UniProtKB/TrEMBL annotation, chain A:
Keywords: Signal
SUPFAM superfamilies xrefs: Molybdenum cofactor-binding domain
Organism: Loktanella fryxellensis
Secretion signal span: 1-31
Protein name: Isoquinoline 1-oxidoreductase, beta subunit
UniProtKB/TrEMBL annotation, chain B:
Organism, as annotated: Loktanella fryxellensis
Top-rank lineage group of the source organism: Bacteria
Coiled coil found in the keyword field: no
Stored Pfam families: Fer2, Fer2_2
Lineage, opening ranks: Bacteria, Pseudomonadati, Pseudomonadota, Alphaproteobacteria, Rhodobacterales
GO molecular function: 2 iron, 2 sulfur cluster binding; metal ion binding; oxidoreductase activity
Residue stretches making up the 2Fe-2S ferredoxin-type domain: 1-76
Gene3D superfamilies, sorted: 3.10.20.30, [2Fe-2S]-binding domain
InterPro entries: 2Fe-2S-bd, 2Fe-2S-bd_dom_sf, 2Fe-2S_ferredoxin-like_sf, 2Fe-2S_ferredoxin-type, 2Fe2S_fd_BS, Beta-grasp_dom_sf, Diverse_Oxidoreductases
Protein name according to UniProt: Isoquinoline 1-oxidoreductase, alpha subunit
Keywords from the UniProt entry: 2Fe-2S, Iron, Iron-sulfur, Metal-binding, Oxidoreductase
């Protein structure tokens, strides 16, 4: 998700959960050890927990409490690196644990509450985690100085070892003494020139457990007496239960109960197989009164009509677009059609809840745990502090678990409420639930018009964007100023190019289809529409796609320029967009403060693109762990590539979702993955995000290569239309 | 009642015959390294070894397993599997990690059959294992690294 860090947005987020927004870091020694204490399996006091983020145990392990959910993007390793750097710890002694839900202690400093999204984990934690590490280091040094009777200034720390030249100790033996000290204010941070861990490849902390099957995810949990629950959800968006017959379902061995809940009909059973069998035996009549009953083809027609007829809200304007287009030598017009997309994380949505005498504990891939906590407490009529949240490793998200709607919190809460007794339940979604469950990347139309003058200069640019708002209708609607949702058009505004006559309009549509941020949010379509259309203009003007972009960049867009120049070098760009049987295309796009340029190499195999190589130059500020950055770019490219080539969620007759599993919603496979080469621009600027910015440029780079190779401009996505469309 | 061997130990299970092996492993035998991804043999997250061949546990009913030999990620201790796990960790293949048990099982089986696989061999053997994080660049590299380490 994207985040514009305006005071009003922060204040709103804070007020919804009754928080006080504070930017200072709580660093009082023992009074702050409660959070870390929660992680002691036996409930005993930790040896040394100088703040809510660090625990040092007698065996020398340093455990960093990670406030961001680990869903593959690497915060466990990244945030632990920041702490280890300032503590001068040895990497081998570092561990990471997920923080519990606590919107004050573990708030995302960009949001004002606990949450992960908008590629903010590293950006908002960079200084905070370094300060936490520096404070812990200072306390260990003071403890050593006290123990040895020496001046702390004489003590050095390296690789987890303190020494004054005579005495020597690791962290563990000093932990008990350090725990009694008062943390200093403003422990100094390292000069980046002294970094030994930041900027170097570190092995990830979670790779081993994720390679041998021992990593524990939500679906792997097992509690005494726990039942599994699956829900029969409506097959159309915002359908409801009209009536149901549970006779056959209740006769399935292992099925213990069937209950109607607001989301559908819940089947409770002693095993997953029994629950699924019970759901298959259930007969439900659905009421589609409030549902979206148009087909997606009809919706797309409606969107295109709006793009041609509605002026929309004025989002950005400079110069005089009408005069510019009238006076242009050539005017190009392209309409881009983007389908709904599902996120399809490999671990389908799930959660576990245990209710005991008015106390609730829940486990899940809660990406905004405060929203889910509030939902569960509300449904069960409890105070927030009666609900203990455990944030689990998540088997992917790509935005799906970042729900201000608290979709999973609401379902697991209703399951516990409808059971009407103490007990433990595991909610399991199937792939069918996942793909038909809404919360899609919004269907979108861009209608772009551009003008070129006699000298080949781009003299006019008009983009009309039509889609649903992600923020409208939810708890974030209050942050929309003048009815505008920036996540609908981010990336199509404030472009780096000098376009003197420009207009961007947004037409908001309404539908019962729920929409959500999908890896890189608005950039998923704005990067494609703007970079493909710009390429069309440049080629029509007889310009080289790389040089044409460089010439158009505003003078102060130095980071855009650097990544574009670098990627051109990497790919050996020479202005030829076709060489032999291969086509080459470029795209440049900044998202979440990170700059990425990509060049794709594409072949034509029986009329369909085979993408063989992708080069990417990226500038995300200080590269905390280049290994993780390269992995995120590789994965972001694969994620975007699969969607552009294959993916659409389509509503058929009556609004019924047609793609129900991976047989019709086709995933990119290893045989379709290009070779990827990544170079990271060296930088001393504070780090920005890396989870999302690799995704936006890949689609337009491929489309531009494909157009160069075949002459076909792909303006209706995906490249391979779904069978059912 | 169905009796079969799981990771070298005889297990007798009394469940409906249509219960997929996936849920027998996860719910009954508490072996949760084998993951649920699609339920229709499209993603490979539930890949196990069945009588020496890779098999999607989500479409393998219990009543076909009498006397079978099943090996899951938890019990995969062949030289190929050890090399694959080491290679996976060395270059940090996993991102979210959910599909990786299946990937490791498929990769170990590939190296047992073809000690020095080409890119085409890797594509053929691994195309049934979806990684939504698209860690494919590293999966390919780690298989080659594991093959090298087995030669040494």
């Amino acid at each position: 998700m994207t985040m514009t860090l305006t005071p009003s947005r922060r204040a709103f987020l804070a007020s919804t959960l009754g928080l006080v927004v504070a930017v200072s870091l709580p660093l009082r020694a023992r009074a702050q050890s409660g959070a870390a204490l929660a992680f002691q399996p036996d409930g005993s006091a930790p040896t040394f927990a100088p703040n809510a983020f660090i625990r040092v145990d007698p065996d020398d392990t340093v455990t960093v409490i990670i406030k961001h959910i680990e869903m593959g993007q690497g915060p466990m390793t990244g945030l632990a690196t920041l702490v280890a750097e300032e503590m001068d710890a040895d990497w081998s002694q570092m561990r990471a644990e997920s923080a519990p839900a606590d919107d004050e202690k573990y708030k995302n400093l960009a949001f004002g509450l606990q949450g992960t999204g908008g590629s903010t984990a590293m950006a908002n934690s960079y200084t905070q985690m370094r300060q936490a590490g520096a404070t812990a280091r200072a306390l260990l040094v003071q403890a050593a100085a006290d123990a040895w009777g020496v001046d702390p200034a004489r003590i050095t720390v390296a690789n987890g070892v303190l020494t004054d030249g005579t005495n020597i100790s690791t962290f563990g033996p000093l932990a008990a003494r350090a725990a009694l000290l008062t943390p200093p204010e403003g422990a100094p941070l390292k000069d980046p020139a002294q970094f030994t861990l930041i900027g170097t490849d570190r092995p990830k902390l979670d790779s081993l457990a994720k390679s041998n099957g021992t990593a524990v995810f939500t679906m792997d949990l097992d509690l005494p007496g726990m039942e599994t629950v699956v829900i029969a959800h409506p097959p159309m968006m915002a359908g409801t239960v009209a009536s149901f017959d549970d006779t056959a379902a209740l006769s399935v061995p292992g099925v213990t109960a069937v209950r109607q809940i607001p989301q559908g009909v819940a089947v409770y059973a002693t095993s997953t197989h029994a629950a699924l069998s019970g759901r298959r035996a259930l007969v439900v009549d659905w009421d589609s009164t409030a549902a979206e009953t148009r087909t997606s083809a009809q919706m797309m027609e409606d969107f295109v009509t709006l793009a041609r007829t509605e002026p929309g809200l004025m989002i950005e304007e400079s110069g005089d677009i009408d005069t510019a287009l009238t006076g242009a030598t050539q005017v190009l017009e392209t309409e881009f059609r983007f389908p709904y997309l599902a996120h399809a994380p490999m671990e389908p949505l799930d959660a576990v809840i245990a209710v005991t005498g008015g106390q609730v504990e829940t486990w899940g891939g809660y990406q905004f745990p405060g929203f889910d906590r509030q939902a569960i407490a509300g449904i069960l009529g409890l105070e927030m502090n009666a609900v203990k949240m455990n944030v689990m490793l998540a088997g992917g998200s790509f935005g799906r678990r970042a729900q201000s709607s608290a979709q999973i919190g609401n379902e697991i809460g209703e399951i516990a409420k409808a059971a009407g007794r103490d007990g433990a339940w595991k909610l399991v979604w199937t792939r069918e639930d996942d793909l038909t469950g809404g919360h899609y990347r919004p269907m979108t139309v861009h209608r772009l018009r551009g003008g070129i003058d006699a000298d080949g200069n781009v003299v006019g640019w008009h983009d009309v964007i039509v889609n649903q708002s992600i923020m409208a209708g939810g708890p974030m609607a209050a942050m929309m100023q003048d009815g505008k949702d920036p996540t609908s058009y981010e990336g199509a505004v404030n472009m780096p190019y000098a376009l003197p006559h420009l207009r961007v309009n947004w037409v908001q549509t309404q539908s019962p289809v729920s929409v959500l941020w999908w890896r890189s949010v608005g950039h998923t379509h704005t990067a494609y529409a703007t970079e493909v259309f710009l390429d069309q203009l440049l080629v029509a003007a007889g310009k080289d796609p790389v040089q044409g972009r460089l010439d158009l960049l505003k003078p102060d867009m130095t980071r855009d320029r650097a990544v574009l120049e670098r990627v051109a070098q990497m790919a050996g760009w020479d202005g030829q967009t076709v060489k032999g049987d291969k086509g080459y295309g470029v795209a440049l796009h900044e998202s979440f403060g990170t700059y990425a340029a990509q060049i794709a190499e594409v072949q034509d195999v029986d009329g369909f693109p085979r993408v063989t190589r992708v080069w990417c130059a990226v500038d995300c500020g200080v590269a905390v762990n280049p290994n993780v950055i390269r992995a995120q770019i590789e994965g972001g490219i694969g994620y975007g590539l699969g969607a552009v080539l294959f993916n659409a969620i389509t509503l058929g007759d009556g609004g019924v979702v047609q793609e129900t599993n991976f047989d019709t919603y086709r995933m990119l496979r290893i045989s379709e993955m290009p070779a990827v080469e990544v170079e990271i621009i060296a930088s001393t600027i504070d780090p920005t995000g890396i989870g999302e910015p690799g995704t936006p440029p890949v689609g337009p780079a491929i489309a531009n290569a494909w157009r160069a190779l075949t002459g076909n401009a792909i303006t209706t996505l995906p490249f391979q239309p779904p069978v059912n469309a | 009642m169905t009796t079969f061997t799981v990771n070298g130990t005889a297990r007798t299970v009394d469940l409906p015959g249509d219960t997929p092996l996936l849920w027998v492993l996860r719910d009954e035998l508490k072996l949760t390294g084998t993951k649920f991804g699609c339920g229709i043999a499209q993603c490979g997250a539930c890949t196990v070894m069945l009588d020496g061949q890779t098999r999607r546990a989500c479409v393998t009913p219990l009543d076909t397993l009498e006397g079978a030999d099943v090996r899951t990620i938890e019990g995969l201790d062949t030289p190929e599997a050890d090399a694959v796990k080491a290679a996976w960790t060395a270059i940090d293949v996993p991102q979210c990690g959910w599909c990786q048990s299946g990937q490791v099982v498929s990769a170990a089986a590939l190296l047992y059959e073809i000690p020095d696989p080409t890119d085409a061999d890797i594509d053929a053997a691994m195309a049934g294992n979806v990684c939504r994080c698209a860690a494919y660049v590293r999966i390919r590299q780690a298989i080659k690294d594991a093959a090298q380490s087995l030669k040494a």
